[in-house]
Fold:
Amino acid sequence: MSKKNKVKIQSVKAAKYNASNAMINYYLVLIFTAFPLFFTNKFSNIRHDKLNAFLVLSCTLVFVEFIIFIVSHFERKRVGDFPEEKWYKQLSFTDYAFGALIVLYILSTVFSKYPLESLTGTQGRNNGLLLFIVYFLIYIVISRFYYFKEYVFALAACGCLVVFLLGILNFFFIDPLGMYAGYSEKVAEDFTSTIGNKNLMSAFCCLTVPAFLLLFMNTKKSVLRYLYLVVSAVGFTAMLCADSESGFLGFVPILALTLLYYSRNVSMLRKFFVAVSAMLLCAKLLRVFSFVMQDVEKGFGTMQTLFIYNNKSFIVLAVTVLVSVGLYLMERKNGVLELPRTVPFVLIGIYALALIVLISLFVNYTFVDTESKLGGVMSFFRFDEKWGTHRGYMWIKSFEIFKTSGIKNALIGSGPDTFYSAFSPYFSELNERFGNSSTNCAHNEFLNYLITAGILGLAAYISVFVSAIIKAVKSAKENYLALVFIAPVICYFLQSVVNIATPITTPLLFVFLALSQAVARKKI
Structure:
């Protein structure tokens, strides 16, 4: 063997876990621990704190990875170690869709009436072109050079656990960080932990709890398994304390899909029901803690009350515990066991029936019976302008804006994060009817993109995530990490129907998107 070939083989072996991989893992540790906890002046600057932290961390990673890439490129060129396939032949549909999204965002910014605001996103929540370019760069870097090391998610679990516990304590007006000092009671009720608005805390839970749930079910390391279980249960409790229905909109379907995916695997089913039992038990512990605190808390919504105060939920908890025990005994007696193929089909039938019932209720109370008084959970089945803290009004008017926006705005929008200007003709009516003098978002991310990025921008955005989800699910049979990373994406995608994109939570969406595609590209 020639000396040149020896050098080449050694370089390939050394590249299994290299500086590029390590830098990404250091970045991930910071983005899952330091980033969620970082703040400078309590809640007054929380969005800009997170934006600046994310930009500094991400731009540093991109710069360092670029230097490493250049150095390694010349090193490979020196030893004759060339890639077998050209880079452009390795592009996936998700890559093309994301590239198209960035091109459309650039066009939308250039042709906007507010180009500077579109570039920076200062009219809205800083979701301008610049932030999306950073999302794209992070996606490219992580999806190409990520290498799984579980210590990252062990540390991430510890970091998120702190965020969750702060959210729970804040719900009972226990403020160890002094975040509420000098603020009004309204701020204390709406803002929580080191995240901000309760809707954003709910989104944060949607982006993290599904990952830890699936890590608990799949990890081979027993110590970390218990850590992931605890963090999943406490995270669910923090979601309850966030008191935002958007969390349920995202998380409940994830539970249903997880149950369906593992419905034939007895071992995985046992772990699933153990996790659900732990979550329900923690919800009941909130009831005990509330009693100890003499019910001095922010107040639970209707959905949250069902888990915490409704005695029927004890029955559900008992059932999940009994199922867990039964599956454990079955597994212990028979070893590796699969349930009949009919089980997933039965579940699909149950889900379909439940969906039909929900749609029927929605149609009935929205279009047929529009007079009956509805309270509690039932109020969600009547869509009108008052629906969802007058989200209905903003959604209806958003469609009117789109229909009258003209060809240019219909195709590429008014400019990234310029919903404020697009919605401004309705500010007077919004104030008269609901007491809000203005708004800079539709409280529905898809409508927000429809108005600000146009139908083409929205189509590209949806294409990025739908294609990523499909590719990740296909990869899950070979690597469970595909599910771990794509579950938060799906959860966020669902809750974003009634929520908003901000630099506080949305960066984690694109990080998980990139991680899922790293697995799908078989780079792990």
